[in-house]
Amino acid sequence: MSLAIHQDDADILLKQKNILNEDNLEKYRVAGQITQTGLQYLISLINNSYHLKTTAKISVQDLCLLSDSFLFKLLNKQYVNKVIEKGISHPTTINVNELINGFAPEIDDEREFYFKEGDVVTLSLGVQIDGYTSQVSHTIVIYPTENNKPTGPLLGNNADAICACHIAIESVIALLGCSLNPEKLPQNLQSSKITGSLIRNLVDSIADQFNCIVLPGSKIRRIRRFLAGQAEGIVAERDFKGVVWDESHQEIRLLKQGNTTQDLIVSEKPQSTNNSSAVPNDEFFIEPGEVYQIDLKMSGLSNLNEIGIITTDEIDQFSGKNNKQDFNSKSSIFIRDFAITHQLKLKTARKMLGEVDKKFSVYPFKLDYIGNELIDNEKSQQEINEQIAKLKQSMKSNRLGASELINRHLIKSKPIQITKFVPLKEILLTSNPTGKHGIDLSKPVLPGMEIPLPNIGISSIKLKSLLKTGFNISNVRESTTIIINNNNNNEVLRLNGGEQTANINWIHSNYKLNQDLQDTINYLIQLTKDKRFGINLKTINPYKLKQQNASVESMQID
């Protein structure tokens, strides 16, 4: 079902409201400052709990709740009675090792999840002010400590992936910034404009040098007001503009590596560019005045002895209920589908739907956001525990109301996903009588990406059946939001991440860049260091915090 919108209204929503005037830029800046502060706060909680050990270990569900409450508190201090909408655009998720998306356990989950030494932990969060969104992801490592210091650097495939992801993020920021001054592009790129193909080639080249794979779901995409990719797979976004990775790009890579005859080599013909298309393609140009989300996920291959495809698998509360004791968990993040209407029976469901429509609009939410007071981070630990206990009691009625909303398809759950490696031999030897004509409608994907392995004729249903032959593989993720601002000073504004809040961990990789690629990346990075003759890159600073244990005692706005 589609929603009818007049062309004049569409022009206002998609064009006029996305002009980077000073008012809109300030909303982006404030959203960026809140995400920077939230990420800094969350990392400090983990460091105090697991590395410095100045507090008791905090569970994953408590970390998610404290982080979200902290974000709401910061939001409540900004634009009071000045904007219609503001809130969390990406609930805090904490994905550990092979978990890649959506893990944010509710506070009433019977199991308590804790980190252990050696875990690779990805923290993701985001906020929006009047629909202008800032989202960030950062991967940290839980180190074994001795005298409050790590005993050594992280080694192996996770270290390779962290290194590749960090270099790729910084390089892409510089590359996108060159759209303000295309004459500063490195000569060996042999391009006068920044295209999607150029971005993909740079990221893939960096990943290859570190023996890593760019995972399905990675994307470098334009974001606009209320359009930040939060409903991908549910709503098709008109005028989509971005580079997206899925399993088919791994397939092309393997075919190119293994074939020497022309009849089997994949032909990558440029697709015709349709500005109104919702189907991603690389035939677009980066233009000043746009906002981009750079979201890269990678896995290292150094520990693998065979070739294959890395894909994602969805888990739920039923996964593992057999002889294989796999991890299982309920989806805890939901999003409203405004194309569906229904007359509800339960009073709790009607009340919940009204609050969802009023508070969260088109953005994801969790059940503990609804009808509850926020956890006050400035209280003592005992008072925080009392607030959490009260919150657990209110979750019972929320779950009852949510069950009817889910059954009537008024809200949809966002899946919890893990990364799995499926050996190529299992894919090639499987019987496939239906060919590629079998689409897994339960898996949210962008339009045009319903068939994961089109060249060898493997459908999403068939690939899903092959997941039992694979095994879990860990992943890392880095994400940041940047504004290519062509007003006055011509600057690139980085809303989140960077050295102040998302420093790279102590790692060591046995791989390094080849000389040509290293020269290109060094040139791009140096441009961001030279504001006069290079790219004027500014990173939003977090609020100043004074923190003790799990409580934030004071907050000062810069």
UniProtKB/TrEMBL annotation:
Keyword DNA repair among record annotations: no
SUPFAM superfamilies xref list: Creatinase/aminopeptidase
GO biological process: proteolysis
Entry protein name: Probable metalloprotease ARX1
InterPro entries for this protein: Creatinase/aminopeptidase-like, PA2G4/ARX1, WH-like_DNA-bd_sf
Family: Belongs to the peptidase M24 family.
MF (Gene Ontology): metal ion binding; metallopeptidase activity
Main location as per UniProt: cytoplasm
Cellular component terms per the entry's GO annotation: cytoplasm; nucleus
Organism: Candida verbasci
Key words of the record: Cytoplasm, Hydrolase, Metal-binding, Metalloprotease, Nucleus, Protease
Keyword Cytoplasm: yes
Location within or outside the cell: Cytoplasm; Nucleus
Role, per record: Probable metalloprotease involved in proper assembly of pre-ribosomal particles during the biogenesis of the 60S ribosomal subunit. Accompanies the pre-60S particles to the cytoplasm.
